[in-house]
TrEMBL record:
InterPro entries in alphabetical order: Nucleotide-bd_a/b_plait_sf, RBD_domain_sf, SNase_OB-fold_sf, Tudor, Tudor_domain_containing, Znf_MYND
Domain MYND-type: 301-336
Domain Tudor: 442-503, 649-708
UniProt biased composition (Low complexity): 373-384
One GO cellular component term: cytoplasm
Protein name: Protein vreteno isoform X1
Composition skew (Polar residues), residue ranges: 57-69
Keyword list, A-Z: Metal-binding, Zinc, Zinc-finger
Phylogenetic classification of the source organism: Eukaryota, Metazoa, Ecdysozoa, Arthropoda, Hexapoda
Record's compositionally biased regions (Basic and acidic residues): 363-372
SUPFAM superfamilies documented for this protein: HIT/MYND zinc finger-like, RNA-binding domain, RBD, Tudor/PWWP/MBT
Gene source species: Bactrocera dorsalis
One Gene Ontology term of the molecular function aspect: zinc ion binding
Region named Disordered: 48-69, 363-392
Length: 776
């Protein structure tokens, strides 16, 4: 090889010195760009290659057009949210500089957010991943491109994290995940709920249910206390309230007394003053068999002419309630308290009283004759029937005092008039039922739908109407004079005497105006139950406009008789879920009660999800609990759809509301881990599957959603910790999602919140097919 001349050698060396492949790659937009992570979603102009290629031209352009956002250089920055109280700029600077260079730390004068500026996108991404992976406890958001002079957060800074991310697998970071996601996204199982009573029960020929409930009230008041009737709710849990005097069950209050107390009350009851007997025109007093004349303190309402015993405190004019007094006030105010007018009213009231008394006497006598002629005995069923319908009493007048007797749903309750006459008649009737209870005969055959019987509720005998008797060990009925539903055995039911069947029921269902029908949480239940122990309420409604003719009930407002607080508004406030506004307001799994599956032998469970069978585990619940889960799903959908489009990245372990991509609906979830790719791992704990959900499909968890966790993880005994694909496929065939399984045994590990179930037939089939090896 010939020696190269000095000139040629110098030229080659110059060319080699000018050749910089790294620089060429750096300015190559196809080679040098962010394809994943936060930098991948920035504007193309701020990608490394484009910035390098622009060089000094871009800087000069920026200096000439500082206010031109279209040509200004983008400064990469992060937004920090939910920071601990009292944290300083210096502290944030020190944290961030551990992982990359920081240009500036800015804070907002309007919000508790901090902005971290970086010299390059690479520095921003390095710090971003470090903050997310180290789980410092605050939220880290990638700032969107805007003018650097703008220091206040814009909407995208506050409400969103990353721009839209396609759900391709190459976008999700699988490498750094510790939790195994569900291999299949299965549709949610559905479990049918059979109502206690349906429309057909009212439409059958000679239906007793139609006769005894012509308004069909009990079609709308049936499902708030299903778990209590099924015996799946802890009795002590229901009665865990501040007062020990009253106990609660199926939406009704009662007093738990010793036998000595019951004997004492029975003796006093026999000596009570009783009530006014309209047919005999006297007040009956059982003590010494004395009878007294009709009391003089019953008069006629000056506004509506009805009999009443309430008088104006200043002038003693009779009014049947607050509403009538208000209506009469424009005229009544001119004469209220004047002696001469008072005397004239007194005479007028006496005349009206006598007139009303005569009309009432004729009315009672007429009713007695009709009842005597209309009764007949059915030889086929042994049930006393009536050709006339069993009418309920009219709803108490607007403005009158009422008692809350039973809670059916968040927006449906039963009320009873507390007017003096109605109160006396009610307690007299209850007393009569108790006195005759010892002579009652037990039912000899299964009752029919609509039949009236007598049964014992917490030591007190009550009239009840049969709603469903398909199962003799679980006969569904409603207590007619209170309104709550229950389930009793055939052996607990007694024949109702004819005189008890004729009496109209003392309660009426009403719908609480402006109160939504929501799932009955323990907070709502506790508040509504507190009004069952004798607190007076005032009912208000418009007689013409508030009647829902299709349901046969009124929409009403109830007010606390002592404080005048609006009962409806207080219930509605507890019902309405509100999105947390405080950055520190986060809820974790200890916010919710966790139910344990029944323990023991021969337990029937339903499979809520089997997408993690590769681990030898499934998620199970009872059928009753699964139905409860479906009930509060409607509340979750309304809440999720009511929120504006936004993003939320929950903390590790934080509860959230997340959208399931199979059906696009919202479900409860808990964040398991965050790896910085915008797809936190979320476990949908009401079903048991684990999925990676984009942050734009996650919302904050409201404090009002305190529904219990009814679903539990269950290990199938005999399966390996890691199941092969062919074994998983066979397991999916034998125990499909939504199926019912009969467990030979269920063992509960309370400390670990875990269950082990025994399925011997399943294991035997797997071994027979060679999918499981015998243990040596």
């Amino acid at each position: 090889m010939k020696n190269m001349s000095n000139d040629n050698l110098n030229n080659v060396l110059k060319e080699l010195g000018a050749w910089n492949p790294m620089r060429d790659d750096y300015t190559n937009s196809k080679f040098n760009k962010y394809s994943s992570g936060p930098g991948a979603y920035l504007d193309a102009a701020v990608q490394p290659a484009q910035q390098a290629e622009a060089g000094n031209k871009q800087r000069s352009s920026i200096s000439k057009n500082v206010n031109d956002s279209s040509t200004s250089k983008f400064t990469p920055y992060l937004v920090l949210k939910h920071l601990p109280p009292g944290i300083t700029k210096k502290a944030i600077y020190n944290i961030c500089t551990r992982h990359g260079r920081v240009s500036d730390v800015r804070d907002s004068t309007k919000n508790d957010y901090f902005f971290i500026d970086f010299p390059t996108v690479a520095e921003m991404e390095s710090v971003y991943r470090a903050l997310v992976e180290n789980q410092y406890g605050f939220h880290v958001l990638v700032g969107k491109q805007k003018n650097k002079q703008q220091t206040e957060p814009i909407l995208s800074d506050i409400e969103e994290t990353l721009p839209s991310i396609e759900t391709e697998k190459n976008v999700i970071d699988f490498e750094h995940r510790n939790y195994r996601s569900s291999e299949k996204n299965l549709p949610r199982p559905h479990f049918g709920h059979t109502p206690i009573v349906n429309q057909k029960a009212y439409e059958t020929k000679d239906s007793l249910l139609q006769r005894n409930d012509p308004q069909r009230h009990f079609l709308i008041t049936e499902d708030a206390h299903e778990l209590e009737r099924a015996g799946l709710k802890d009795y002590n849990e229901l009665n865990n309230m501040e007062t020990s005097k009253y106990k609660y069950r199926t939406g009704r209050a009662f007093i738990e007394m010793s036998e000595q107390s019951k004997t004492y009350i029975e003796e006093k009851s026999r000596q009570s003053l009783g009530g006014y007997d309209w047919s005999r025109q006297i007040y009956e007093n059982n003590h010494n068999n004395r009878g007294i004349e009709r009391p003089k303190d019953i008069g006629q309402c000056a506004n509506c002419d009805r009999s009443c015993d309430i008088v104006c405190a200043r002038c003693q004019t009779y009014f049947c309630g607050l509403e009538c007094q208000r209506k009469a006030w424009p005229k009544h105010r001119q004469i209220c308290g004047k002696e001469n007018i008072k005397n004239s009213f007194k005479g007028l009231n006496e005349n009206l009283e006598n007139k009303c008394f005569q009309e009432e006497k004729v009315h009672v006598e007429s009713n007695n004759k009709e009842n005597e002629s209309s009764l007949n005995t059915s030889t086929s069923s042994g049930v006393v029937e009536k050709s006339t319908e069993m009418q309920s009493r009219k709803i108490p007048r607007s403005g009158n005092l009422v008692a809350l007797t039973a809670v059916s749903k968040t927006n449906i309750v039963f009320i009873r008039s507390k007017a003096d006459e109605d109160n006396l008649n009610f307690f007299k009737f209850i007393n009569n039922v108790q006195n005759t209870a010892k002579q009652l005969k037990k039912l000899s055959k299964t009752p029919i739908c609509g039949q009236i019987v007598i049964t014992n509720f917490a030591g007190q005998y009550n009239r009840a109407m049969i709603l469903n008797s398909d199962n003799e060990q679980h006969i569904k009925l409603v207590y007619m004079d209170y309104g709550n539903l229950d389930a009793r055995k055939l052996e607990d039911l007694y024949e109702a005497p004819e005189q008890f069947i004729q009496v109209q029921r003392f309660v009426e269902p009403v719908i609480l105006k402006d109160v939504p029908e929501m799932y009955m949480t323990e907070e709502i239940r506790k508040f509504m139950y507190s009004y069952l122990d004798g607190i007076d309420l005032v009912v208000k409604y418009d007689e013409k406009n508030d009647l829902l003719s299709d349901k046969g009930v009124y929409e009403v407002e109830l007010f606390d008789g002592t404080t005048n607080q609006n009962f409806n508004k207080m219930v509605a406030k507890l019902c309405k879920p509100t999105e947390p506004t405080n950055p520190d307001e986060a809820y974790f799994v200890n916010h919710l009660p966790q139910k344990q599956l029944p323990e023991g032998d021969n337990i029937e469970l339903v499979v809520m999800d089997n997408s993690l069978l590769c681990t030898g585990c499934i998620s199970c619940s009872t059928k009753k609990w699964a139905i409860e889960i479906e009930k509060f799903q409607s509340d979750l959908q309304l809440y999720g759809e009511s929120l504006k489009d936004q993003c939320y990245t929950p903390r590790i372990g934080e509860l959230c509301i997340a959208k399931y991509k199979v059906d696009g609906k919202w479900y409860r979830g808990r964040c398991l881990e965050i790896v910085g790719d915008g797809f936190p791992s979320i476990i949908f704990f009401d079903y048991g599957n684990i999925g990676m959900v984009n942050v734009k499909n996650i919302r904050r968890y409201p404090a009002q959603f305190t529904f219990p966790i009814y679903t539990c993880d269950c290990e199938i005994k005999g399966l390996p910790e890691q199941c092969e694909a062919d074994l998983v496929q066979k397991l999916e065939e034998l125990i499909p999602n939504g199926s019912t399984i009969h467990c030979e045994n269920v063992t509960v590990y309370k400390d670990d919140n875990f269950h082990a179930i025994t399925l011997p037939k399943l294991i035997h089939n797997l071994k027979a097919e060679g999918l499981l090896k015998e243990k040596v």
